[in-house]
Amino acid sequence: MTYNVASDRLLEIFELITTYEREHPRDASLCMVSADVVGMDGAGILLLTDEVLTPWCANNGTARDLMDIEVVFHEGPGNDATRSGYLSAHNDLVENSEWTFYAPEAIKLGVRAVCAFPVYVGFHKLGALILNAEQPRPLSDAQLSDGYLMASVIGRDVLATVFDAPHDSSTGEVGGPSNFDFVLHQATGMVSVQAGLPVHDAVVTIRSHAFAIGVSPGALASRIVNREICYDKESSDWKSE
Q1: Bridge partner list, 231
Q2: End-to-end CA, the chain
Q3: What are the CA-CA distances from residue 86 to residues 32, 59, 197 (Å)?
Q4: What is the rounded distance in angstroms from the CA atom of residue 18 to the CA atom of residue 141?
Q5: Residue 172: pLDDT over 60
Q6: Phi/psi at 118 (5° precision)
Q7: Distance CA 85, CA 197 (A)
Q8: Tally of domains in the chain
Q9: How far, in Å, are 133, 184, 213, 220 from residue 142 at the CA level?
Q10: Most CB within 10 Å of its CB: which of 86, 97, 174, 221?
């Protein structure tokens, strides 16, 4: 089984990481690539350590300041995404009344739109990828897909850092066994948004449907990523696109 869409995008991501790493540390490169790939102005990564969120990297000062605000006030997209396992996205912070402290402080920094993708491996929450934009904007389907793919890349990289294992920055990683992990994580993120489910429930939904129709979870994940099938929240069923 091949995963052309994900493989092509992964190749672009790994090549970008390799390019940035020539002049920047690995963690900073991940944040720079995240902003580029998803098409946002800023990117930061918060990691969950002993139930406490800690800034890991940022591509610029604004992204770093936004993470500091989350750490101080314990609210914001990174906190929400990490706790819930859901994507947390707000197109315009001026219209947001959910975050009493975070929203006004973010606006002072010149930020109008924010989103956070949960970073996880399996069922283990590792933190969140947080992105911001200077202008109000909704996320497109392509940005959502890319955001979850980047979160998957970050999750594997965090594990490699923690356990001092080789990083998966080589383009040889694409198309190999680990590509299945990336595709399944990407598909899980997409279904999480489509069905309005937390990440761990989206995993169960994919595996259950794969079993019901007699295909492997990887084959179903490939169809989801390639936008051949999606989960329809209104009917609580799957439909072809």
Answers
A1: 238
A2: 21
A3: 23, 23, 7
A4: 26
A5: no
A6: -65, 135
A7: 8
A8: 1
A9: 16, 16, 27, 19
A10: 221
Structure tokens at 83: 């706790």
| Chain segment 37-65, per-residue pLDDT in tens | 999 999 999 998 877 888 999 999 999 99
Residue 127 has pLDDT above 90, yes or no: yes
> What's the sign of the alpha-carbon dihedral 218, 128, 8, 156?
negative
- Cα 122 → chain centroid: 14
> What does the pLDDT read at residue 91?
93
For the residues of 187-218, what is the DSSP string, one character each?
HHHHHHHHHT--HHHHHHHHHHHHHHHT--HH
Q: H or E stretch including 126?
A: strand 124-133
Residue 132: both structure tokens together: 């911001």
Q: What is the CATH number of the domain that holds 211?
A: 3.30.450.40
How far apart are alpha carbons 127 and 83 in whole angstroms? 9
d(CA 203, CA 54): 26
**Which among 51, 31, 9, 15 is positioned nearest to 146, based on CA atoms?**
9
- What is the amino acid identity at position 210? A
Least confident stretch, 134-148, 182-196, 224-238: 182-196
CA dihedral 173, 228, 129, 2 (to 10 degrees): 0
Provide the 8-state DSSP code for 173: G
> Distance between CA 240 and CA 230 in Å, rounded?
6
Residue 147's domain comprises 4-240
Query: CA 148 to CA 119: how far, in whole Å?
Result: 8
What is the band of 75 on the pLDDT scale with cuts at 50, 70, 90?
Answer: very high
Give the span between the Cα atoms of 46 and 72, in whole angstroms: 13
What is d(CA 45, CA 58) in angstroms, rounded to the nearest whole number? Answer: 7
